[in-house]
């Protein structure tokens, strides 16, 4: 059979017309897959720079915004020290700077930096516990500021206690914990003294004072700092940091974990060792060739799909400091996975590749 040129052209046009019709009717359309993958947003670390050290994070349920607060630092941008900077985000990934906790330093101590804040919602208000200390300070302490809104203004309520008053050397790094209507504060940092270590103490019902300083209890040895307690499936998990936090590219900071069946311990690592002994703890996160000194993380945040996330700071090895000389401790975000009763983060080092972002349904 001989097919002339015009008939062949009509045939070809008809075939393409049918293909287009089938495609438009989604008979073999893959666009649904594209839509699904478009909804799965990705991100890469760091999620904020140049600095947000010792991050603490909370969500304002009325607006859906997350607020992150960090240690006082000079970002090297000519604007001097930010007295505990405040960031805001809708998704834990995209952050913007919105201000500082204080315009002036509190007057209850003569000198020092404002370090390692811990934000919490208590009695409908935002409670920010913070450290007030110098390097090598013999009498650092922990203070409290309160605000009606997450971005402030914060009003200082003064000190909860100082090192000498509570008899715990290097009393910094506060972390609030509440259970069954009872409030506790955990705190403490590096040192070799006989009463050194991470301690807990009951707070008043309003969370604004310590009724009895003698009721403190010790949960970890003096080679820990930046403690955080997280309860899951009947266990209390103790997360904390060890090593040098702020030595630029030489920082040895890393995160370890242990667990207990009681809030007051004993907390045991994966090998069954009590973390009241030095040199214990199961490593959760350490540095690599890209980022060093990961540590001093937030409390665990759960997204709308039930996935747990952790924000922490780390130092990029080839961009270790800003022009002010401060360690460039950028803000990092990584997923926490639970298996056989223990948490893990990826391969145990800061995640560099693009990964799926947290999902929030509002």
UniProtKB/TrEMBL annotation:
Enumerate the active-site residues: 54, 225
Range of residues in the leader sequence = none
Single annotated GO MF: hydrolase activity, hydrolyzing O-glycosyl compounds
Does the keyword Hydrolase feature in the UniProt annotation?
yes
Keyword Transmembrane helix present in the record's keywords: the answer is: yes
Q: Which InterPro entries match?
A: GH43_arabinanases, Glyco_hydro_43, Glyco_hydro_beta-prop_sf
Could you list this entry's UniProt keywords, alphabetically sorted.
Glycosidase, Hydrolase, Membrane, Transmembrane, Transmembrane helix
Among the GO biological process terms of this entry, one is: carbohydrate metabolic process
- Important for catalytic activity, responsible for pKa modulation of the active site Glu and correct orientation of both the proton donor and substrate (site feature) positions: 173
Chain ranges passing through the membrane: 7-24
Q: In which pathway does it act?
A: Glycan metabolism; L-arabinan degradation
UniProt-listed Pfam families: Glyco_hydro_43
* PANTHER family, per database record: ARABINAN ENDO-1,5-ALPHA-L-ARABINOSIDASE, ARABINAN ENDO-1,5-ALPHA-L-ARABINOSIDASE A-RELATED
- Family per record: Belongs to the glycosyl hydrolase 43 family.
Can you name this protein? Answer: Arabinan endo-1,5-alpha-L-arabinosidase
Species lineage: Bacteria, Pseudomonadati, Bacteroidota, Sphingobacteriia, Sphingobacteriales
């Amino acid at each position: 059979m001989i097919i002339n040129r015009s008939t062949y052209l009509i045939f070809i046009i008809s075939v393409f017309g049918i293909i287009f019709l089938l495609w438009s009717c989604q008979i073999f359309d893959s666009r649904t897959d594209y839509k699904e993958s478009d909804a799965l947003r990705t991100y890469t670390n760091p999620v904020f720079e140049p600095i947000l050290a010792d991050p603490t994070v909370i969500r304002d349920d009325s607006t859906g915004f997350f607020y992150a607060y960090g240690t006082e630092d000079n970002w090297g941008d000519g604007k001097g020290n930010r007295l505990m900077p405040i960031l805001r985000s809708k998704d834990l990934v995209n952050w913007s700077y919105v201000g500082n906790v204080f315009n002036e330093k509190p007057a209850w101590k003569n000198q020092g930096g404002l370090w390692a804040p811990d934000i919490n919602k208590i009695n409908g208000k935002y409670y920010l516990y913070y450290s007030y200390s110098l390097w090598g300070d013999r009498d650092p302490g922990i203070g409290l500021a309160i605000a009606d809104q997450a971005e402030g203004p914060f009003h200082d309520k003064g000190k909860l206690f100082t090192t000498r008053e509570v008899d715990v050397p290097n009393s910094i790094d506060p972390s609030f914990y509440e259970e069954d209507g009872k409030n506790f504060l955990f705190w403490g940092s590096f040192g070799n003294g006989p009463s050194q270590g991470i301690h807990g103490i009951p707070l008043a019902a309003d969370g604004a004072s310590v009724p009895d300083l003698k009721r403190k209890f010790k949960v970890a040895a003096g080679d820990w700092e930046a403690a955080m307690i997280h309860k899951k499936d009947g266990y209390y998990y103790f997360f904390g940091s060890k090593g040098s936090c702020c030595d630029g590219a030489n920082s040895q900071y890393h995160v370890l974990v242990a667990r207990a069946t009681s809030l007051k311990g004993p907390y045991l690592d994966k090998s069954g060792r009590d973390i009241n002994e030095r040199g214990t703890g199961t490593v959760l996160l350490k540095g690599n060739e890209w980022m060093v000194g990961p540590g001093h993380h937030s409390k665990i945040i759960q997204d709308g799909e039930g996935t747990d996330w952790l924000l922490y700071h780390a130092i990029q090895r080839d961009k270790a400091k800003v022009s002010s000389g401060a360690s460039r401790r950028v803000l990092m975000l990584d997923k926490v996975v639970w298996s056989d009763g223990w948490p893990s983060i990826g391969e145990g080092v800061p995640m560099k590749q693009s990964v799926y972002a947290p999902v929030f349904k509002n």
